[in-house]
Protein backbone atom coordinates (compact mmCIF):
# COMPACT_ATOMS: atom_id res chain seq x y z
CA UNK A 1 0.00 0.00 0.00
CA UNK A 2 1.60 3.30 -1.06
CA UNK A 3 2.51 5.84 1.59
CA UNK A 4 0.16 8.83 1.47
CA UNK A 5 1.43 12.29 2.33
CA UNK A 6 -0.63 15.43 2.82
CA UNK A 7 1.10 18.73 2.07
CA UNK A 8 -0.45 21.74 3.80
CA UNK A 9 1.08 24.80 2.10
CA UNK A 10 -0.61 27.94 0.77
CA UNK A 11 2.32 29.19 -1.33
CA UNK A 12 2.03 27.70 -4.82
CA UNK A 13 5.69 28.45 -5.57
CA UNK A 14 6.70 26.16 -2.69
CA UNK A 15 3.92 23.59 -2.96
CA UNK A 16 4.28 22.76 -6.67
CA UNK A 17 7.94 21.60 -6.62
CA UNK A 18 7.34 19.90 -3.28
CA UNK A 19 4.46 17.88 -4.70
CA UNK A 20 6.55 16.86 -7.71
CA UNK A 21 9.51 15.82 -5.54
CA UNK A 22 7.33 13.72 -3.24
CA UNK A 23 5.63 12.04 -6.18
CA UNK A 24 9.02 11.16 -7.71
CA UNK A 25 9.80 9.32 -4.48
CA UNK A 26 6.81 7.07 -5.15
CA UNK A 27 4.50 8.49 -2.49
CA UNK A 28 0.85 9.30 -3.01
CA UNK A 29 0.37 12.99 -2.28
CA UNK A 30 -2.47 15.44 -1.75
CA UNK A 31 -2.10 19.16 -1.23
CA UNK A 32 -4.36 21.64 0.54
CA UNK A 33 -3.74 25.36 1.04
CA UNK A 34 -5.44 25.97 4.40
CA UNK A 35 -5.74 24.50 7.87
CA UNK A 36 -9.37 23.42 8.08
CA UNK A 37 -9.28 21.35 4.86
CA UNK A 38 -6.16 19.65 6.26
CA UNK A 39 -7.95 18.80 9.51
CA UNK A 40 -10.92 17.45 7.56
CA UNK A 41 -8.75 15.34 5.25
CA UNK A 42 -6.74 13.85 8.13
CA UNK A 43 -10.00 13.06 9.94
CA UNK A 44 -11.23 11.21 6.84
CA UNK A 45 -8.30 8.79 7.24
CA UNK A 46 -5.58 7.35 5.05
CA UNK A 47 -2.91 9.99 5.68
CA UNK A 48 0.44 8.57 6.83
CA UNK A 49 2.44 11.77 7.13
CA UNK A 50 1.69 15.48 7.23
CA UNK A 51 4.00 18.17 5.81
CA UNK A 52 2.64 21.23 7.55
CA UNK A 53 3.33 24.91 6.96
CA UNK A 54 2.68 27.20 9.93
CA UNK A 55 1.73 30.36 8.05
CA UNK A 56 -1.70 29.35 6.76
CA UNK A 57 -4.42 31.79 5.70
CA UNK A 58 -7.19 30.55 8.00
CA UNK A 59 -5.36 29.43 11.15
CA UNK A 60 -1.92 28.90 12.61
CA UNK A 61 -0.33 25.60 11.60
CA UNK A 62 0.39 24.91 15.28
CA UNK A 63 -3.37 24.81 15.85
CA UNK A 64 -3.70 22.32 12.98
CA UNK A 65 -1.04 20.14 14.59
CA UNK A 66 -2.72 20.37 17.97
CA UNK A 67 -6.16 19.57 16.53
CA UNK A 68 -5.16 16.51 14.51
CA UNK A 69 -3.23 15.05 17.46
CA UNK A 70 -6.20 15.68 19.76
CA UNK A 71 -8.41 13.92 17.22
CA UNK A 72 -6.16 10.84 17.37
CA UNK A 73 -3.89 11.22 14.32
CA UNK A 74 -0.90 8.93 14.87
CA UNK A 75 1.02 9.60 11.65
CA UNK A 76 4.17 11.67 11.30
CA UNK A 77 4.09 15.46 11.29
CA UNK A 78 6.90 17.56 9.83
CA UNK A 79 6.54 21.30 10.30
CA UNK A 80 7.78 23.49 7.45
CA UNK A 81 8.09 27.15 8.35
CA UNK A 82 9.94 30.41 7.96
CA UNK A 83 9.87 30.72 11.75
CA UNK A 84 13.32 29.47 12.64
CA UNK A 85 13.37 30.60 16.26
CA UNK A 86 13.97 28.06 19.01
CA UNK A 87 10.72 28.96 20.77
CA UNK A 88 8.65 28.16 17.69
CA UNK A 89 10.52 24.89 17.25
CA UNK A 90 9.89 23.89 20.85
CA UNK A 91 6.21 24.83 20.69
CA UNK A 92 5.82 22.82 17.48
CA UNK A 93 7.30 19.73 19.09
CA UNK A 94 5.26 20.27 22.24
CA UNK A 95 1.97 20.20 20.33
CA UNK A 96 2.82 16.92 18.63
CA UNK A 97 5.14 17.50 15.67
CA UNK A 98 7.86 14.90 15.05
CA UNK A 99 10.28 17.10 13.13
CA UNK A 100 10.82 20.73 12.17
CA UNK A 101 12.42 22.17 9.04
CA UNK A 102 13.06 25.89 8.60
CA UNK A 103 12.59 27.57 5.22
CA UNK A 104 14.43 27.78 2.94
CA UNK A 105 15.24 24.06 2.92
CA UNK A 106 16.59 21.66 0.32
CA UNK A 107 14.21 19.08 -1.11
CA UNK A 108 16.82 16.37 -0.60
CA UNK A 109 17.02 17.15 3.11
CA UNK A 110 13.25 17.17 3.45
CA UNK A 111 12.90 13.83 1.66
CA UNK A 112 15.63 12.32 3.83
CA UNK A 113 13.76 13.41 6.95
CA UNK A 114 10.50 12.01 5.59
CA UNK A 115 12.16 8.64 4.93
CA UNK A 116 13.74 8.61 8.39
CA UNK A 117 10.46 9.46 10.08
CA UNK A 118 8.60 6.76 8.19
CA UNK A 119 11.27 4.22 9.13
CA UNK A 120 11.13 5.22 12.79
CA UNK A 121 7.34 5.15 12.82
CA UNK A 122 7.48 1.64 11.30
CA UNK A 123 3.75 1.64 10.64
CA UNK A 124 2.38 -1.48 8.91
CA UNK A 125 0.54 0.67 6.36
CA UNK A 126 3.82 2.34 5.49
CA UNK A 127 6.47 -0.36 5.60
CA UNK A 128 4.54 -3.42 4.44
CA UNK A 129 5.30 -4.61 0.93
CA UNK A 130 2.43 -5.31 -1.45
CA UNK A 131 0.71 -8.52 -0.41
CA UNK A 132 2.18 -8.47 3.08
CA UNK A 133 -0.16 -8.93 6.02
CA UNK A 134 0.87 -7.49 9.40
CA UNK A 135 1.81 -10.38 11.65
CA UNK A 136 0.21 -10.53 15.06
CA UNK A 137 2.35 -11.51 18.04
CA UNK A 138 2.57 -15.16 18.96
CA UNK A 139 -0.22 -16.67 20.95
CA UNK A 140 1.87 -16.44 24.11
CA UNK A 141 1.73 -12.64 23.81
CA UNK A 142 -2.07 -12.57 24.00
CA UNK A 143 -4.49 -13.18 26.85
CA UNK A 144 -3.77 -16.42 28.66
CA UNK A 145 -6.25 -19.06 29.71
CA UNK A 146 -6.41 -17.40 33.11
CA UNK A 147 -7.37 -14.04 31.62
CA UNK A 148 -3.98 -12.43 32.17
CA UNK A 149 -2.81 -9.96 29.54
CA UNK A 150 0.85 -9.65 28.64
CA UNK A 151 2.82 -6.65 27.45
CA UNK A 152 5.48 -7.00 24.76
CA UNK A 153 7.89 -4.61 23.06
CA UNK A 154 9.71 -5.65 19.88
CA UNK A 155 12.57 -3.19 19.47
CA UNK A 156 13.69 -4.53 16.09
CA UNK A 157 10.21 -4.23 14.57
CA UNK A 158 9.48 -1.05 16.59
CA UNK A 159 6.11 -2.41 17.69
CA UNK A 160 4.44 -2.97 21.07
CA UNK A 161 1.45 -5.09 22.03
CA UNK A 162 -0.93 -5.46 24.92
CA UNK A 163 -2.09 -9.04 24.59
CA UNK A 164 -2.88 -9.48 20.91
CA UNK A 165 -3.56 -5.78 20.28
CA UNK A 166 -0.84 -3.57 18.85
CA UNK A 167 -0.44 -0.13 20.39
CA UNK A 168 -0.47 2.75 17.92
CA UNK A 169 2.59 4.81 18.83
CA UNK A 170 4.43 7.74 17.32
CA UNK A 171 8.18 7.40 16.77
CA UNK A 172 9.06 9.34 19.92
CA UNK A 173 6.46 7.50 22.02
CA UNK A 174 7.94 4.16 20.97
CA UNK A 175 11.50 5.32 21.69
CA UNK A 176 10.53 6.46 25.19
CA UNK A 177 8.61 3.24 25.84
CA UNK A 178 11.43 1.02 24.58
CA UNK A 179 14.01 2.75 26.78
CA UNK A 180 11.80 2.55 29.86
CA UNK A 181 10.95 -1.09 29.13
CA UNK A 182 14.63 -1.93 28.72
CA UNK A 183 15.17 -0.69 32.27
CA UNK A 184 11.83 -1.81 33.64
CA UNK A 185 11.52 -1.21 37.37
CA UNK A 186 14.36 1.32 37.42
CA UNK A 187 14.09 5.09 37.23
CA UNK A 188 15.25 6.59 33.93
CA UNK A 189 16.21 10.21 34.39
CA UNK A 190 14.78 13.00 32.30
CA UNK A 191 18.31 13.78 31.13
CA UNK A 192 18.84 10.22 29.85
CA UNK A 193 15.53 10.23 28.01
CA UNK A 194 16.20 13.60 26.37
CA UNK A 195 19.73 12.58 25.36
CA UNK A 196 18.80 9.19 23.93
CA UNK A 197 15.38 9.88 22.43
CA UNK A 198 15.90 13.44 21.26
CA UNK A 199 19.49 14.68 21.14
CA UNK A 200 22.28 14.92 23.69
CA UNK A 201 22.82 18.48 22.48
CA UNK A 202 19.16 19.45 22.93
CA UNK A 203 18.97 22.73 24.81
CA UNK A 204 15.30 23.52 24.39
CA UNK A 205 12.38 23.02 26.76
CA UNK A 206 11.91 19.52 28.16
CA UNK A 207 8.15 20.04 28.14
CA UNK A 208 8.11 18.03 24.91
CA UNK A 209 9.19 15.00 27.01
CA UNK A 210 6.30 15.53 29.43
CA UNK A 211 3.87 15.84 26.51
CA UNK A 212 5.14 12.61 24.95
CA UNK A 213 5.04 10.73 28.27
CA UNK A 214 1.51 12.00 28.91
CA UNK A 215 0.26 10.68 25.57
CA UNK A 216 2.09 7.38 26.08
CA UNK A 217 0.69 6.93 29.58
CA UNK A 218 -2.85 7.50 28.32
CA UNK A 219 -2.39 4.94 25.55
CA UNK A 220 -1.19 2.35 28.05
CA UNK A 221 -4.19 3.06 30.27
CA UNK A 222 -6.64 3.00 27.35
CA UNK A 223 -5.13 -0.29 26.19
CA UNK A 224 -5.42 -1.83 29.70
CA UNK A 225 -1.69 -2.58 29.69
CA UNK A 226 -0.52 -4.56 32.73
CA UNK A 227 2.22 -1.98 33.36
CA UNK A 228 2.29 1.47 34.91
CA UNK A 229 4.27 4.52 33.78
CA UNK A 230 5.09 6.44 36.94
CA UNK A 231 6.61 9.89 37.35
CA UNK A 232 9.36 10.10 39.93
CA UNK A 233 9.14 13.77 40.82
CA UNK A 234 12.29 15.74 40.17
CA UNK A 235 14.13 12.72 38.73
CA UNK A 236 12.45 10.97 35.80
CA UNK A 237 10.11 8.10 34.99
CA UNK A 238 9.74 4.42 35.79
CA UNK A 239 7.91 1.61 33.99
CA UNK A 240 6.80 -1.22 36.25
CA UNK A 241 4.28 -3.99 36.55
CA UNK A 242 0.78 -2.66 37.08
UniProtKB/TrEMBL annotation:
Return the annotated DNA-binding positions. Answer: 136-241
Q: Which SMART domains match?
A: REC (SM00448), Trans_reg_C (SM00862)
Any idea which UniProt keywords this protein has?
DNA-binding, Phosphoprotein, Two-component regulatory system
Q: What GO molecular functions are on record for this protein?
A: phosphorelay response regulator activity; transcription cis-regulatory region binding
On this chain, the residues bearing 4-aspartylphosphate are 53
Residues covered by the Response regulatory domain: 4-118
Q: Might you report a single GO cellular component term?
A: cytosol
| PROSITE patterns with a match to the protein in the record | OMPR_PHOB (PS51755), RESPONSE_REGULATORY (PS50110)
Name of a matching Pfam family: Response_reg
Q: Name one GO biological process term.
A: regulation of DNA-templated transcription
Q: Which residues form the OmpR/PhoB-type domain?
A: 136-241
PANTHER family, alphabetized: PHOSPHATE REGULON TRANSCRIPTIONAL REGULATORY PROTEIN PHOB, REGULATOR OF RPOS
Name listed for the protein in its UniProt record: DNA-binding response OmpR family regulator
* Organism encoding this protein: Nocardioides kongjuensis
Amino acid sequence: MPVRLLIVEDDDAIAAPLVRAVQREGYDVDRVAAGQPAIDQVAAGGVDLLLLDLGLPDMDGLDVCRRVRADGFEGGIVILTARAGELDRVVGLDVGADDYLAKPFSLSELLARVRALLRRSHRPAVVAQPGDVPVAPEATAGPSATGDVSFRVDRDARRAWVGGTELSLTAKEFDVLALLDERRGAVVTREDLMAQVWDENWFGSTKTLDTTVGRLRQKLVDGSAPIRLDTVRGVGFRLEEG
